[in-house]
Each structure stands twice: as structure tokens, then as C-alpha cells.
Request: fold
Amino acid sequence: MQTGPDATYHHAWPYAELRQAVHELAVRAIAPHAADVDASSRFPREAYEALVAAGFHAPHIPEEYGGSGADEIATCIVVEEVARACASSSLIPAVNELGSLPVILAGSAELKSEVLPPLARGEAMFSYALSERESGSDAGAMRARATPDGDTWVLNGTKAWITHAGISTYYTVMAKTDPTAGTHGVSAFVVHRDDVGFSVGAPEHKLGIKGSPTGSPVFEDVRVPAANVIGEVGRGLSVALGTLERTRLGAAAQAVGIAQGATDYAVAYAKERVTFGKPIIDHQGIQFKLADMATRTAAARELLYTACSKADRGDADLARYSSMAKLFASDTAMEVTVEGVQVLGGYGYVKDYPLERMMRDAKITQIYEGTNEIQRVVIARSLSR
Reply:
């Protein structure tokens, strides 16, 4: 089985060989650019091209649409190993899944045939547009509207905090089609960036994941064909929530990767940094920190893979486990990177070393794909049932 620089991913790869292949690609083609991507706040073009060449940019696309047919565990391994080197770059496969999964789960055969093959070939990227300035966790309060007009829908409104806005070709957009029906009055649409009336505002200036553009798509009388409705009219929030039950695992995988990258670097540094006549890894205070970092990261990974297995099987308790995985992994990423900075001391606080970037990148994993407070609500409600 070929796993070298010219290999392309297929779903039949064993997980261990997949992990090794992604790791080698990340070390060779992604990690060398990570600091510049962050400092320049630029899209990681080198990473995108390398991921496309290897078939890792959207491994979840089914084979019948030209994809690799990766299951959720394999998809998360890809995200995890890329995030280990560069969190911004890991959002390429993660958000391609987030944006396109509604189509895979609920789209018509015609819509799938139109939008999935270009994504599989690396000719397009896919974003997910749910949040607005006044409706983040409270998605039902969205103001974007879509009104019927013959065989089209006319879309108006503005979304916010949308990953890869301005870079992606396709956007899954949630809008109210019946403002009187509450959560049952939202529908999901696929919008193309070339559609008349579509534009993207100025990008956000962020604390972390600076190489992943975040912006506000604007829809001004955008005409969307009725064929671009994902699933049934009025069932958009069901599509959105069904998607997030699975794709928040990508955020968890990103968090695990960040935590692993921070642990790797802290251990390597501790082996070489000498104080009081010996490497600091021989000091018990540092040993305890590294032991806790490695243990929490391993625990987060196991919980993630358990949740991924439930996603692949369609288990009834997927929502609970995906929320637990996202919650625990993101909190772990934050704690581990903070401790990693502490292991490096003053060096951890400067941009010459990657730990401060990892710490800044880790924070967003506690916020997007549903804040960790929302994850706790989901978990508690599942227990009450």
C-alpha cells in the first residue's frame, strides 16, 4: 500500500497507515508554513494544495461522487494530524465536511451530483452559514429571510463568523422561510459565490486560527433555485442540528491535534532545556505537567473516537457523545496549551516558538460548533431523558 508523498487516500487504508501518511504530509508541507500563515493572517495555500494532491482536503465525500468515502474516524484522524502542525490548515477538511454534510444527509440526488464532485476534486470549498450577529447559540432568532418567487427563492440577510467566507465556492445557508413557524420555519439552501447579490464583508481580525478567513456573507436579493433547497422546506434547523451532531467531532479532532502538537513540542523542549545542571524533563515539577498533558490528550482522543464510532453506526446517543467529545477535547486543548507555554517559560510567550500560537488557536475550539456551555446543556438534557 502506497503511503509516500504521491499517495492518495482511499477509505480502505488502515487507520494507522492513514495517520502516518497525514502526519508525514503535515510535517513536510504544512508545518514549515504554519508560523507565516499565522503572522500574515493568510489562507494556507500550500496546505490546501498538498491536501488536495493527497486526497485529504475532503475525505468524507462518498465514492459515488468522486470522493474517498472516509468514515468519521478517518476524517477526524485527518483533521487531528493536520491540526497537530497547523490549526488553521485543519479547518480545510473540517469545514468542507461541515458545509457539505447537510447536502450528503438531506440533499436531492441532483443537488449532490452538482456540488459534491467539484468538492471531491479540490476545485471548490464548502462553507456553512448558520450564525448571525444577533443569533449565535440561539439559531432560531436568525433574521435572514428567503421568500418564494416562482421556481426560485429570494434570499436576503447577513451571516457572521463564517469560516472560509470569500474562499469557498459553495455555502450552505440557513434562512427563515416562514417567520411565523418558529424553529419549523427555517430552510437550508446551497448558494454559489457567483450568484448575483452575494458578497462577503471585510474579514474578522481574530485571536487565533488567523490563516482561516472568517467573514460575513451578505445576501441581497440572491435568487436560489428551488432545486437548491436541502431537504424539505421548513426543516432547515433539523438539517443543521443533525449536521452539527457529527461535525462537532471535527472541532474535537482539531482540539486533540492542537493538544498533541503542544505536548510534542513541550516534551522535546524539556529534553533539551537545561537548568540546575540537568534537562528540565528530569525535574519532577515539569514531569507532572507533561504527564497531565499527555494523559488528558489521550483521554480526549479516546472519547473522540468513541463518538466517531457512534456517528458511523448511527447510534441513538450520538448527540450526547459528540457533545461530550467536543466539550472535553476543547477544554483539554486550552489547558494543555496553557501548560505547554508554562513549560517553556519566557520562551513560551514569544512568537519565535509555536506554543503561544497553539494556545491562541485552542481557544476557538471552546466556542465554535456550539459553545461548551451549549454542549453541557445538550449533555444534561440527554441525561434527563
Notes: Residues 179 and 185 are 6 Å apart (CA to CA).
